[in-house]
Amino acid sequence: MEYKNFIITEKSFNDKDMTITHYISTVTPDRFGDIVNPFGMDADNFRKNPIVLFGHSHNARTNIIGKNILLAPDDFGVKAMTKFADTSAGKDIYNLNKEGYLNAWSIGFIPKKTKIQNTTVNNQPGTYNIIDEWELLEYSSVAIPANPDALNLMYKEIKSPEILHEINFALIRSELDSYKVSAKELSVNLEKLEEKTAKKLKEIINLIRRNRMQKCN
Questions:
Q1: Whole-angstrom Cα distance, residue 184 to residue 34?
Q2: b/e burial code for range 109-127 (CB count within 10 A of at least 16 → b)
Q3: In the predicted structure, residue 100 carries a pLDDT above the cut 70
Q4: How far apart are CA 52 and CA 105, in angstroms?
């Protein structure tokens, strides 16, 4: 299973039904240059058991925060309606989303068909890995790093110890992911430096050879 995180600010809330209408994925490339095609989603198996999790955690029933009651792909992404459970964990995550402390959702999926394509997205030309067909296994509300003040306020709102535990681990995992991205960027920069160094070295060698030939003549 693979995971893709998306920061979602466009959300609508229904306090009476405790539902949120929001996107669980968008066509915006992620940090790795991947684009998830919303119309390539296969959600047949997911709809048989449409639970919604926090932090992709399957370890405890307390981390089932609700269920999905709508999935609709469009040109922007996959829009969902999530109905939150009438539990401590469900209420916590609903309120944290409503208050703006949580704005990230993540899909757990299996890619079925991918392609590399040179295209322009959001006025940014580049080479992107497009996930054209994929099976949705689940989706989750996930924690993202925030400034210390926001984190402190968020912790004060949490009533469920299980959710607090998961948020702490989610923040650690997110920090580790940022190191992975940094390592990947460093590797790419080293490759570019090696190419430039090899090119410059070749130029110097050719220049030395030409000078020797001129002296011999």
A1: 14
A2: bebeebeeeeeeeeeeeee
A3: yes
A4: 10
